[in-house]
Amino acid sequence: MGRKFFVGGNWKCNGTTEEVKKIVNKLNEGEVPSQDVVEVVISPPFVFLPLVKDLLRPNFHVAAQNCWVKKGGAFTGEVSAEMLSNLGVPWVILGHSERRQLLGESNEFVGDKVAYALSQGLKVIACVGETLEQREAGSTVDVVSAQTKAIAERVSSWADIVIAYEPVWAIGTGKVATPAQAQEVHSELRKWLSANTSPEVASTTRIIYGGSVTAANCKELAAKPDVDGFLVGGASLKPEFIDIIKSAEVKRSA
Ligand code: 13P
Fold this sequence. Notes:
The protein has helices at residues 17-29, 49-55, 81-87, 97-102, 107-119, 132-136, 140-152, 179-196, 199-204, 218-222, 241-246, 248-253; strands at 5-10, 38-43, 60-64, 91-94, 123-128, 161-165, 207-210, 229-232. It is of the alpha/beta class. The chain has one domain (5-253): Aldolase class I (TIM Barrel, Alpha-Beta Barrel). An 8-stranded parallel β-barrel has the order 1-2-3-4-5-6-7-8, surrounded by 4 helices. Helix 5 packs parallel to helix 7 (140-152). Residues 10, 96, 166, 171-172, 210-213, 231-235 line the site of 1,3-dihydroxyacetonephosphate.
């Protein structure tokens, strides 16, 4: 099916210039599988994007953590998709739960952002995921389907979209989803894509998992057939991120 393993490092709102340089040095020294086996994307805060892009090894790429929903202009404090394209930033993370939850980004708003970012030539890591309350109420699949639907209704191609399934209860909590829990939701998302977009989109779109991924738990998760990689928060700031990138080998030997 040719879904290349994908590992994203979401640094969130962390780092100083000195820390950024140190982390990038570590990333540059790390021994990782070739670009044919794994695609690696690092997402520092906006202000460090040019620095990271300049210093980072050429086989890793950068992503912004957000962008504005439409063409730039009189929107104080926002960063537009045009600006990211202009800087040569290839990827953007959209719909992260920290923005959906804390800043009230709706499914529709996220869908609009994804469509606009794609129209400006960016590739998108689109995040979906349920809260603990929603999981306990048995509505996980409904929630992630509705989040995906709001994107599907607004885009004509999925070629430049990676879906990140990030259950809210697993983010930053140390409470990782079990491989079975991740596999179940990824497989449901793939079924949803098959029924509502096309079987081809379903079989080619990468669905990655995020939420308390570490060097210790990544291999077991990576072994699941519908887990195509990871979006890593806390551990992406640490040397163990290299080990998480290496978990791509699990797929190759599968
Ligand atoms: P943690 O890996 O820190 O749980 O964060 C996951 C995440 O939100 C990545 O986008």
